[in-house]
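Running low. Got one?
___
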Amino acid sequence: MKRLSLLVLLAACDSAVVAGSPDAAAPPFDPGSASVTAEPPPDGPDFVCLSHQPPTVALDPLTIAGTVETITPTGALQPVDGASLAFFVAGKPVVLARAQSDAAGAFSTGAVASGGHPLHAYLKATKPGYRTTFLYPPLPFTKDTMTVPLPMMSDALFATIASTLAASQDDHHNGVLLVAVADCKGHLLPGATLSVTRGNGHVAVGDIHDLGAAVAGAGGLFLVFDVPDGKVEVSAAYGGMPLPEHDVMVRKQDPDCPTARSTLTATAVMPEP
């Protein structure tokens, strides 16, 4: 099953992750056991979880683990080794855990205290030659999650995809979003529509492209170029059915890097509220 997704100061950009600038308290998620996959659902999309209520308690402690991966123009996935990761509290410069991806791209936070409450947190991954990734799941973490796909994109691959999509990106002022729109079992939803907005007026921002136009099997996975720095709302619809909205913090540059380091903010829109 093919998954698409889907951390001295200078040293922090290349080999370690230090506490970043506080962000808005965006509600990340517990992706559970479902990984985002490009394999078509055998019986059509599964939306049974759309009416579920999110958990109000969490396992304490809990562990977040998964694989750092990059996608190729042919749609294949490759592990990213040697990526430095940090697990941050959302909205605060508090690092809960640090890790590094191994030769297979695997990583684990180890046991992290939750206090029994849903854990609003995000992952940050850095590696030389790659855009810094901030991964914001759509719901708080509430249990051990062992299959998190953490996407990274090399500078060269990003340039190739942007050229294929005829998209432009101003990294001095804006960030980039990578958004998977999937059903309850993690199947991507080709034909879905994505919305990225800002403010009380829900003003549309960014230049949205379906990655399926550039990468085989990636329909339902979106790249959004030139997203203004700051908090945005991400939502989607499939077949006229609206999917839950959540907030993420987009950054034009890695705040921990004194030299220019472009970013990629990754998230998913799924039926689970």
User: Anything to note?
Assistant: The longest strand covers residues 241-250. The helical segments are 9-14, 155-164.
